[in-house]
Amino acid sequence: MYDRTVSSLRHVLIALGDPLVELQVAPRGLEVDVRDVVIMDPDDPPDVAAGDLALLIGARGRAALPLIRAAGRAKAAAVAVKESSQALVQAATDAGVALLEVRPEVRWGHLESLAKGVLTITTDDGEVLGDLFALAQTIATLTGGIVSIEDTASRVLAYSRSSDEVDELRRLSILGRQGPEPYLKMLREWGVYNLLRSGEEVVRIDERPELGIRRRIAVGIHAGQQPLGTIWVQEGDQPLTEQAERALLGAARVTAPHLIQQRNQPTSRFRENLLAALLTGRMDAVTVAGQIGADPKKPAAVVVFAVRSAEGDRSEHELRRAEMTGLISVHAAAYRRSALVSESGGRTYVLLPDLAPNAQLLSLTREIVTTARRHLHTAVQAAVGSTVSTLDDAQISRQEAERVLDAMARDLDAEVATLADVRSQVLVSEILALLQDNPRIRDPRIDALDPELAKSLLAYLDALGDVRAAADRLHVHPNTLRYRLKRIDLDLDDPLVRLIAQLQLRMR
């Protein structure tokens, strides 16, 4: 059953998510009611009411200040701007209205449509729904194609795995988490989106080799007359099955309650935004703890994971990373109900709050890495930040874990590590990174050594001047090593020369 309803600001943020907007300030909290979405234009008299989400179109910088104050006087729930600033944040705080910053690439029309969809569609079904990625894979099996599920803003929500060749449209959609605008424009010009929004008809899109687009079929996902999204099926190396269109129509009806559930329940996107806001200092620990049911005064820790894939297809790498994040989320939630998981910069971050003094984080992390390696068939590394005394210090744990993971990526084969395990390697790795970025503080004589002499000198230095031990490591005669060392124009009796040489050679 579907009804019109009032949503909280929290639910609006859940639906829109970090790809579209970023919360700057919420003086009255996140549970304030949002009743409608309106447009405020600086050239028109303010027309805003209590509970409105006001989109400040065409108002930037100081021009937005009077509109924010007007929205506050009208008891609006929130205002959205394209460019935030400290002055706007202060004005919103003083006015008692939440301030949202809209990503520069987001179109106002799409934002308005999606935000209104949050307010007009709810479900009281209560059914526990399955994973959208699993559903996409089921649709792929039934249709014989390559599937992606998108929302009304053309953001990719889930997609099927495939060994078939994907076309440029699907590849860019997955990598960017949104269809590339030039292709979307062409689809609009061809009338595809109008057909998808108008009803349940399966739409056929012919192959366009000159555009890198293969044949595909698509169907709109609806709740009554309200569009919720689209299912796209690209033809792979083999033709689609005979029942593909019938299966796609049924799939759209099955997918509708999944998307409704996403819009009206605390979804992972909202929780991802909470973690990102905490770890970057944009939201305080007390607020985050209140949203996830954690105690901000109890110990916490951050663990960071990375997929170490070999060079290859970036789409496959993205699929593996998405699967790894899902796997990590399941393990983390089982360990702590209040755990938060988020992706950033190609890494997956896990916040584990409410920790006991003897929490076995290494065991949990090793279990996750082992499971991920077994299922993804690729190398996974993880760094465990130190357990900090309160949630306020989570950034310290994150920074420590990032330092360890950086060193692991450069110099270490370990799968799981803490700073205590590899402190020397981390410090040396960071020194080497500084040397790499600053050629002027290097000795040019060491940089000029040929590979054979460089390898011989490093072995000699690592062996603390023991020629025989170094020769054994190099599999050469000690006299051969002595001859090579004599060819090097360095005073190896000087400890400072040896120190600089060892660092530079390790960098090489």
From TrEMBL:
<feature type="domain" description="CdaR GGDEF-like">
    <location>
        <begin position="285"/>
        <end position="407"/>
    </location>
</feature>
<feature type="domain" description="PucR C-terminal helix-turn-helix">
    <location>
        <begin position="453"/>
        <end position="506"/>
    </location>
</feature>
<dbReference type="Pfam" id="PF13556">
    <property type="entry name" value="HTH_30"/>
</dbReference>
<protein>
    <submittedName>
        <fullName>Sugar diacid utilization regulator</fullName>
    </submittedName>
</protein>
<dbReference type="Pfam" id="PF17853">
    <property type="entry name" value="GGDEF_2"/>
</dbReference>
<comment type="similarity">
    <text>Belongs to the CdaR family.</text>
</comment>
<dbReference type="InterPro" id="IPR025736">
    <property type="entry name" value="PucR_C-HTH_dom"/>
</dbReference>
<dbReference type="InterPro" id="IPR041522">
    <property type="entry name" value="CdaR_GGDEF"/>
</dbReference>
<dbReference type="InterPro" id="IPR042070">
    <property type="entry name" value="PucR_C-HTH_sf"/>
</dbReference>
<dbReference type="InterPro" id="IPR051448">
    <property type="entry name" value="CdaR-like_regulators"/>
</dbReference>
